[in-house]
Amino acid sequence: SPILLWFRRDLRLSDHPALTAAVKTGRSIVPVFLRDGLLDDLGAAPKWRLGLGVGCLAEALQDKGSRLILRSGDALEQLTQLIDETGAGAVYWMRAYDPQSVERDTKVKETLKEQGVEARSFAGHLMFEPWTVETKQGGFYKVYTPFWNAVKTRDVAEPLAAPGEIKAPGRWPDSETLDDWRLGAAMDRGADVVRPFVQLGEQAAQARLGAFMASKVADYNDARDIPGTDGTSCLSENLSLGEITPQQCWHAGLRAREEGKPGAETFLKELVWREFAYHLMWHTPRLLTDNWREDWEAFPWNEDERKAEVKAWKQGRTGIQFVDAGLREMYVTGRMHNRARMIVASYLTKHLMCHWKIGMQWFEDCLIDWDPASNAMGWQWSAGSGPDATPYFRVFNPVTQLDRFDKDRAYVQRWLGKPGAKLTGDAARYFDAIPKSWNMEPDDHYPEPVVNADEGRKRALEAYENRDF
Ligand code: FAD
């Protein structure tokens, strides 16, 4: 009987343990992608980007003589229906770690097993299963450096090759179409704005990794912190959808380290930050929803999204150059440089004293590399409410940060334009992208700061000093 291969955020054919195991059985395979409630709940850009990735996977499967069957509805109901239609005796999938997916997958596994259907989940989205990394006392890690020390010398499985052939079933079940799903419907800035910045699919991801190792990793230690240069791998977009695996990146990083390339070790450490985020989310799912440090519940966060300064922040119009450049970059490209992510997050949570959840959700709506664990950890780290966080009193100064990380102003001028000059390139692209719902007159006027850097800092520190926790 056939095996249903349930694809989720693992949109690739190589280094795919579930697919490799299914092919090894010699049985026919029915690849499936389901549009369920969790997918419908995604933010605009991640949902649209996922749709592109699913389309690309479908093409890759066709090249192997296979197909991708699309169905919408409750995952368990759809799988059960497909089992009825195809006579499948097994369902294989790659494991997910966020609490909602875990709840869904546990129910699916238990029910299928009760029905006598083989249900198997495989590891691979992470290098280190979160429950396998334990402190000496048997707990989980709350601080990055000891986590890194615990995993850095572990063996990471060599990546698997893509299967040569994927055996088709005698008869294919019906499939819905991606066009009907309209996964880009919520992209009110227009998908065309962001599309040029996307590097889609497994082959593009491998090319990205190759280019990074060939020319960028050597300078990565310095260049990675300068948003005006193209100094990082940009692989987060592909890692987030499983178009490439951390194992593939890890082994490439190990090779670069053996070749003596200076930035390779730092790159490996960054991959482990991603693992650490999943480790935290798995052991404490409240990372996604509540202040990780419970005493922070008492902090006087502004939670009112309608406030003018929150709007100005989202729209990249706070009047603080580094902050606005970052937010405009994200709106136009679906990504934001890590340095800018830290600065915009610090400004929102400290200068504007807004709840980190507001920022986290805006990122979730805008990022094509959105990742539940890294996003939540990044926000709680920036706000000071997370484990291993930057202390609240460490307020990034968005003005002096410019002198350190954007000395030649390449980054802010790319996104805000040159003073006094007509807007061109990406700075103009942002104005073209402004949706009607923002009710804004497109102009090239640059606003005064909504909250001045020094005043904001003072206000935040006072609130922190007077906190009753
Ligand atoms: P590189 O510098 O090339 O690093 C290689 C890989 O290491 C990345 O692709 C990523 O998988 C991992 N990595 C690097 N830095 C981090 C980090 N700080 N935390 C976790 N993993 C890391 N990353 C996301 O992938 N999705 C998010 O939604 C996300 N939201 C963030 C929100 C905030 C407020 C902050 C401060 C950071 C966030 N990050 C997020 C982490 C980081 O900014 C991005 O992973 C990084 O900018 C991606 O660019 P890159 O692929 O070129 O990274």
Automatic annotation (TrEMBL):
| Manner of cofactor binding, per the entry note | Binds 1 FAD per subunit.
Chain sites annotated for binding FAD:
220, 232-236, 267, 369-371
User: GO terms for biological process?
Assistant: response to light stimulus
> Per its UniProt record, what InterPro entries does this chain match?
Crypto/Photolyase_FAD-like_sf, Crypto/Photolyase_N_sf, Cryptochr/Photolyase_FAD-bd, Cryptochrome/DNA_photolyase_1, DNA_photolyase_N, Rossmann-like_a/b/a_fold
Q: Which Gene3D superfamilies match?
A: 1.25.40.80, DNA Cyclobutane Dipyrimidine Photolyase, subunit A, domain 3, HUPs
Pfam families for this protein: DNA_photolyase, FAD_binding_7
Domain Photolyase/cryptochrome alpha/beta intervals: 1-127
Q: Which terms are listed as keywords in the entry?
A: Chromophore, FAD, Flavoprotein, Lyase
- Give cofactor(s), names only: (6R)-5,10-methylene-5,6,7,8-tetrahydrofolate; FAD
Q: Could you cite one Gene Ontology molecular function of this protein? A: deoxyribodipyrimidine photo-lyase activity
State the similarity comment: Belongs to the DNA photolyase family.
Q: What is this protein called?
A: Deoxyribodipyrimidine photo-lyase
